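A.,

Following up on our hallway conversation. Structure tokens first:
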């Protein structure tokens, strides 16, 4: 059974893979045997992430790219192919948030969130499709528990992440004939730079999250690694179009 989770010989691209959840997934996929291509806009963060991965013996490389730009997506795909000769796994993790009441967003802010959180998933998936069609592969999209229920302070974020789930299902249906499985992970309240800013702005958030979460704590980026390795591996070959909450039971509560 352990061999089903082995990623030796596989090549994984992780967008936003230089920090937070993305870095944890890069590290976890690498520990399972994959070679990892870290994609991020911040060259310095990319370099730090790359140094950390390589120091653990993980074959890795990094590309500075903006996943909202079609040409940049093609460039990181070409870099992965030039470096490793194949692509097997794409983790669409790049994302951001701006927390406000719905009426307080500008149109530019709305478009920024939709582009970074949703359009990037489309562009990156289309960029790697020709490679994945050759021998099958895995796409893992990072949604959010706001795909399940609304949050008054993040309407465009929730809309973008709801779109990620529907795009996941559409691509899963369309690309099953190529032996490509497309699934989504829906993180709950995870301790990252983004959520730390949210807790600072809303001090009562810490207690509210813990009170509602059956696990009794906030999640950590590494809490998503097991699910990511599962969805990236042969163990999940008959699972596609799924959206799996990783939230300590938060979304299971009324």
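Then the amino acids I'd put at each of the 254 positions:
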């Amino acid at each position: 059974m352990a061999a089903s989770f082995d990623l030796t010989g596989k090549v994984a691209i992780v967008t936003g893979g230089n920090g937070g959840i993305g870095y944890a997934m890069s590290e976890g996929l690498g520990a399972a045997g994959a070679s990892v291509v870290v994609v991020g806009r911040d060259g310095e963060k990319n370099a730090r992430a790359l140094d950390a991965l390589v120091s653990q013996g993980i074959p890795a490389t990094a590309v500075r790219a903006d996943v909202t730009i079609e040409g940049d997506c093609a460039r990181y795909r070409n870099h992965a192919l030039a470096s490793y000769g194949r692509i097997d796994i794409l983790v669409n993790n790049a994302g951001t948030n701006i927390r406000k009441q719905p009426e307080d967003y500008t149109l530019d802010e709305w478009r920024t969130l939709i582009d970074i959180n949703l359009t990037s998933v489309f562009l990156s998936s289309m960029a790697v499709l020709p490679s994945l069609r050759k021998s099958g592969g895995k796409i893992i999209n990072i949604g959010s528990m706001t795909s399940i229920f609304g949050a008054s302070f993040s309407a465009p974020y929730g809309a973008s992440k709801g779109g990620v789930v529907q795009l996941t299902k559409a691509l899963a249906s369309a690309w099953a004939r190529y032996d490509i499985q497309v699934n989504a992970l829906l993180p709950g309240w995870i301790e990252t730079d983004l959520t730390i800013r949210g807790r600072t702005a809303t001090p009562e958030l810490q207690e509210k999250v813990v009170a509602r979460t059956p696990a009794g704590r906030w999640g950590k980026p590494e809490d998503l690694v097991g699910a990511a390795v599962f969805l990236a591996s042969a163990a999940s070959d008959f699972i596609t179009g799924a959206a799996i909450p990783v939230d300590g039971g938060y979304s299971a509560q009324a």
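DSSP finds eight helices and seven strands in the chain. Curious whether your intuition agrees with the design.

B.
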